[in-house]
């Protein structure tokens, strides 16, 4: 199909005149001519900012985003971002309540890898309100613009001058007045930036449009949507909006339900390779800590849906609360071990997995071994291999997602030896949302932040330890969008046997649904 012909300025004028004539001569309202922006190019939009981007004090939580999305005719417009708020379906954004410009810049790293072709920025409100060097805020905003341009040179940035506020209005005026000065040299250097004025434009907000003297009310957010859309029109007229670029992302193949569950809660379901064949098995832990296992025999034949499991029954008769149990390979023999962590000290004891043995209790061989006297609180401890040597390391996740690590040096006379690495990550997410899984099959677990409501996942790829001793984490953005299933939990397990962790959701009864990780493609 031929590309749609771009309407010339003269033809646009003709259509307007035609509409006026229809109204004048017939009394009938003129035709409403809907036209797309930039010849209907797809819009991958990143809303970036603070609580106003989040939608604070709007009645539906959508802020300006839903009103703006409704204005696009002929363009497929999709919001991206690691945050979700509001009752609209596509409610993603990168709006962080209370954040100043430098903090917003840190959070931008979550979504810039997803290569938006339009970035909406309004930032600086909290630098002024919290009195965080307001005079230096324009310079910091310029640094944020450079960061976005460096990551997405093809994207157009629509930069908003701040909305008014009931207090500190002089500071807002001063900040807004500085914005053209930071934009001009960048546009001359080839950056694609359009400024929109949220206060003094034709549709600009007044203090009467604020719900609390700072955040807009619904009418104020509607005005913001109109002003943002004017920015889109300006960008399109200047030829600044281009198609979103393709970027590497993980391909997920939906398999559907692979296990019906055994009627136990989702929090008692684990996955781990207990027989050392390279495929994680289905494990369920009873209220007393006993380990029930089902062997993973792989996918059923092409003519049969689902997955093939063989029951082993109870393979270890434990006596611990499920919240204190971890499943991981400590000794590097390829078989997952059973670990019990003290909830107060983080001290750990393991049952090392010797595999099936006919004359052993429960027909499985286990050897009790001390692991460590403890390095942290039980609820935030993970055992996962961060350096790719096959042995699970001891990780303690801080409240905001920073990780302290102790490398597993192998067995010693007293159980296991550990080497402290200190902090190895920045703060990427709440501790309850942090998971570790090897998504690329290189043997090293990657850092994941899971949305516990919809199941979306962000990734920081583990690049290993640098020559200076620091750990390298490469932001990959959102690598899984989540599902519509409610009340489910997300787990990652190597079910297909190709060394890459697959995406599994577990429903409240223990039933499991699988998306196979088919590796990275560019699209």
UniProtKB/TrEMBL annotation:
Q: Does the keyword Glycoprotein apply?
A: no
Which residue range or ranges hold the SGNH hydrolase-type esterase domain?
48-222
Q: Which SUPFAM superfamilies match?
A: Integrin alpha N-terminal domain, SGNH hydrolase
List the signal peptide residues: 1-30
Q: Which domain of life is it from?
A: Eukaryota
Report the GO molecular function annotations: phosphatidylcholine lysophospholipase activity
Q: Which UniProt keywords apply?
A: Signal
What InterPro entries is this protein classified in? Ester_Hydrolysis_Enzymes, FG-GAP, Integrin_alpha_N, SGNH_hydro, SGNH_hydro_sf
Among its keywords, does the record have Signal? yes
Q: What is this protein called?
A: SGNH hydrolase-type esterase domain-containing protein
């Amino acid at each position: 199909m031929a590309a749609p012909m771009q309407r010339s300025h003269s033809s646009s004028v003709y259509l307007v005149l035609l509409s006026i004539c229809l109204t004048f001569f017939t009394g009938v309202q003129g035709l409403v001519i809907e036209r797309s922006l930039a010849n209907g190019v797809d819009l991958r939009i990143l809303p970036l900012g603070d609580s106003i981007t989040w939608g604070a004090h709007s009645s539906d939580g959508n802020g300006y985003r839903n009103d703006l999305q409704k204005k696009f005719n002929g363009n497929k417009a999709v919001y991206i971002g690691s945050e979700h708020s509001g009752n609209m379906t596509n409610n993603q954004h990168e709006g962080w309540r209370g954040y100043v410009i430098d903090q917003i810049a840190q959070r931008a790293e979550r979504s810039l890898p997803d290569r938006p072709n339009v970035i909406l920025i309004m930032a600086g409100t909290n630098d002024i309100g919290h009195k965080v060097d307001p005079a230096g805020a324009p310079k910091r905003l310029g640094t944020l613009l450079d960061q976005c341009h460096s990551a997405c040179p093809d994207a157009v940035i629509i930069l908003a001058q701040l909305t008014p506020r009931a207090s500190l209005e002089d500071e807002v005026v001063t900040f807004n007045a500085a914005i053209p000065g930071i934009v001009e040299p960048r546009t001359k250097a080839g950056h694609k930036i359009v400024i929109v004025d949220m206060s003094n434009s034709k549709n600009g907000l007044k203090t009467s449009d604020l719900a609390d003297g700072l955040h807009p009310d619904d009418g104020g957010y509607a005005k913001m949507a109109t002003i943002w859309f004017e920015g889109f029109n300006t960008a399109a007229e200047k030829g600044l909006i281009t198609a979103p670029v393709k970027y590497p992302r993980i391909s997920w193949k939906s398999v559907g339900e692979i296990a019906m569950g055994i009627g136990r809660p989702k929090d008692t379901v684990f996955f781990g390779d207990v027989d050392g064949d390279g495929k994680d098995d289905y494990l369920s832990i009873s209220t007393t800590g006993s380990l029930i296992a089902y062997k993973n025999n792989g996918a059923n034949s092409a003519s049969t849906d689902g997955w093939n499991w063989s029951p082993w029954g109870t393979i270890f008769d434990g006596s611990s609360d499920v919240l204190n149990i971890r499943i991981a390979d400590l000794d590097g023999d390829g078989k997952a071990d059973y670990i019990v962590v003290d909830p107060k000290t983080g001290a750990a004891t393991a049952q090392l997995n010797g595999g099936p043995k006919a004359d052993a209790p429960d027909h499985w061989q286990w050897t009790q071994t001390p692991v460590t006297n403890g390095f942290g609180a039980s609820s935030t401890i993970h055992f996962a291999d961060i350096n790719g040597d096959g042995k699970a390391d001891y990780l303690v996740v801080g409240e905001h997602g920073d990780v302290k690590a102790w490398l597993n040096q192998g067995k010693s006379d007293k159980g296991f030896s550990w080497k402290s690495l200190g902090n190895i990550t920045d703060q990427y997410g709440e501790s309850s949302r942090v998971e570790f899984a090897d998504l690329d099959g290189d043997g090293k677990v990657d850092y994941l932040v899971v949305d516990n409501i919809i199941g979306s996942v962000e990734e920081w790829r583990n690049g290993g330890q640098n020559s200076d001793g620091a750990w390298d984490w490469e932001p990959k953005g959102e690598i899984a969008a989540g599902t519509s299933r409610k009340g489910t939990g997300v787990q990652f397990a190597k079910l297909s046997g190709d060394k890459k962790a697959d995406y599994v959701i577990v429903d409240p009864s223990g039933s499991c649904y699988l998306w196979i990780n088919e590796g990275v493609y560019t699209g």
